[in-house]
Design goal:
Blueprint (H helix, E strand, L loop, with lengths): L2 H12 L3 E2 L5 H5 L2 H4 L5 H9 L5 E5 L2 E6 L7 E5 L9 H14 L5 E7 L3 H5 L5 E6 L5 E5 H5 L7 H7 L8 E5 L7 H10 L4 H8 L2 H11 L5 E8 L2 E10 L4 E9 L4 H12 L6 E3 L7 H10 L3 E3 L1 E7 L6
Parallel strand pairs: 11-12
Antiparallel strand pairs: 1-2, 2-3, 3-4, 5-14, 6-14, 7-12, 7-13, 8-9, 9-10, 10-11
Helix pairs in contact: 4-11, 9-11
């Protein structure tokens, strides 16, 4: 965190914002069903943004989070409450805008706005509003029925890669529990030994650190996890969660065997989450390798997210 970011962070803490950490997870999760929390839900806010010194505060029922990501402007996210809000969105923007300016920020930036909410943000009065859309921030969403489909030329990629695992006596799957989730760290460590840390961290930060936070909040009442064993040795894992009848999230996954992650996805949704309409796999962040993997995994939709930057007369947005 830069010295400038630290001044903003300290100011917001004095205004009642609290650190995002494992203890805040139940609070964030309360909002999950009702706003479709961007950035892969409450889990991903906690496990990724504790690394980036995230803060949160409930403002007139709205969950307002602020994040400090090195090399990027400080930004906020806003999540609606379960009940009909007692205040309109514009009043929340006013509060956050004033806080941002008092903290020394040049503008208020709200990120990860779902397309269904965009018009409401753009209708807030009293501001110059700059709206941005970046394709590499769009979330990849797959219908479960498409993930399970292995027929036809469009699914050649899946069939070819799954063939080596299906009906293979050397391959087995084991359920994940609170007691065994720590095994993910061993699989991550093996995967990390073959990576360039500087390149890997340049996109979202260190996933190994985020996975350590996931271990702290893993709850097998909500989270579904599988381990892939090959010849009796742990070789991969996957962690997902069904949020509601329409939506599930794929949070984490790794395999130290080529195409093992595809097999884990297939078996997770075939055996454990077949009744979730969609799997959300988040964005590709402009990473060519991630884009290729996600685009070719299965038929998919890109769910857009937007950025709105709020300034007033005399400011540069």
């Amino acid at each position: 965190m830069t010295a400038e970011d630290r001044r903003v962070y300290d100011y917001l803490q004095r205004q009642g914002f609290l650190p995002i950490d494992g203890a805040s997870y139940p609070i964030l999760k309360e909002y999950e069903q009702y706003s479709g929390l961007q950035e892969m839900g409450a889990v991903m806010i906690v496990v990724w943004f504790y690394i980036y010194h995230g803060l949160y505060k409930i403002v007139h029922g709205y969950l307002c989070c602020v994040f400090f990501y090195e090399g990027r402007p400080v930004y906020f996210t806003v999540h609606r409450p379960r009940e009909t809000p007692g205040r309109p969105l514009g009043s929340i923007i006013d509060i956050l805008y004033d806080l941002s300016r008092e903290a020394g920020l040049p503008f208020l930036q709200i990120k990860f706005i779902e397309e269904r909410f965009l018009k409401e943000y753009e209708a807030v009065e009293g501001y110059h509003i700059k709206t941005e859309y970046r394709e590499d921030n769009s979330e990849y969403a797959y219908r479960t029925k498409d993930l399970m489909d292995l027929q036809g030329p469009d699914n050649y990629y899946k069939r070819k890669r799954l063939k080596k695992f299906l009906n293979n006596g050397k391959v087995s799957l084991r359920p994940m529990s609170r007691e065994t989730v720590g095994l993910c760290a061993e699989i991550e460590a093996e995967w990390c030994r073959r990576q360039d840390c500087a390149y890997c961290e340049s996109f979202t930060g260190c996933e190994k650190k985020a996975m350590e936070a996931m271990e702290d909040i893993f709850d097998d009442r909500f989270h579904k996890g599988l381990f892939l064993y090959y010849e009796g040795k742990p070789a991969g894992y996957i962690i997902c969660e069904k949020i509601n009848e329409r939506l599930s999230f794929l949070y984490f996954g790794k395999s130290n065997i080529q195409d093992g992650f595809i097999y884990l996805i297939y078996m997770m949704y075939k055996e454990h989450l077949p009744d979730a309409e969609y799997m959300n796999m988040s964005e590709d962040m402009g990473h060519p390798g991630l884009r290729q993997f996600k685009a070719h995994l299965s038929a998919h939709e890109l769910w857009r997210k937007y950025i709105c930057t709020f300034t007033k007369a005399g400011q540069k947005g």
